[in-house]
Amino acid sequence: AQKVTQAQTEISVVEKEDVTLDCVYETRDTTYYLFWYKQPPSGELVFLIRRNSFDEQNEISGRYSWNFQKSTSSFNFTITASQVVDSAVYFCALRGGIYNQGGKLIFGQGTELSVKP
Amino acid sequence: DAGVTQSPTHLIKTRGQQVTLRCSPKSGHDTVSWYQQALGQGPQFIFQYYEEEERQRGNFPDRFSGHQFPNYSSELNVNALLLGDSALYLCASSFSGRGAYNEQFFGPGTRLTVL
Predict the structure, then answer these.
(1) Looking at the complex, does the CB of residue B103 fall below 8 Å from at least one CB of chain A?
(2) C-alpha–C-alpha distance, residues A44 and A47, integer Å
(3) Which residues of A42-76 are buried (b: 16+ CB within 10 A; e: fewer)?
(4) What does DSSP say about strands B19-24 and B74-78: parallel, antiparallel, or unpaired?
(5) Per the CB < 8 Å rule, is A45 touching B50?
(6) Are B42 and A109 in contact (CB < 8 Å)?
(7) pLDDT category, A29, cuts 50, 70, 90?
(8) Which residues pair with B92 in a beta bridge?
(9) Which of B5, B32, B35, B104 to mutate to test the interface with A (most CBs of A within 10 A)?
(10) Is B91 buried (19+), middle (13-18) or exposed (0-12) by CB count in 10 A?
(11) DSSP for residue A30
(12) Residue A111 pLDDT > 80, yes or no?
């Protein structure tokens, strides 16, 4: 079975603090893909990053960084120097590999981040 | 370049009625997926359409059906509405071409309320 767990339901920080959103996944596939999406109050899911299972290199994009560790089945997301505009619900998602022809995404429950000024 | 569009934005129906939601994919995309997102939950995969056929389906009853048109746009139909069908319905499009990573791009969603 495939599953994504985001244990943090809500996180509240003050602007300029660093914050890490946790994501743990389960899959039996040897090839799979992990994603992070941002959902602002408007509702539209905004794609942030894709990571392939065969590439454990961490990635940094501006204030965002992602830590992928296959040994612990985790794909954590860190926002450095958070801003009020970062307030949203963040979803981690998993897509299986070669047997998942359609490419359905399995989402976690989401983490609601509130950044206060 | 227009992104994924969905209509209507909001919809209110009563139990037992039927509803049709519409989605136009991002330019260049040929695959459409539908997700249901209940309040406070992550999106749940309903089904995916490619080449006008249902290619993959999640754990949803037959009351949920869909269609894809030759221009790649898609409809989601829900019959015999239940209160539990109240949710945000998200459409996502992607390109199926070989070598593509098939990232799914989401529309703004249709908020369905069943009374």
Answers:
(1) yes
(2) 10
(3) ebbbeebbbbebeeeeeeeeeebbbbbeeeebbbb
(4) antiparallel
(5) no
(6) yes
(7) confident
(8) B33, B106
(9) B104
(10) buried
(11) S
(12) yes
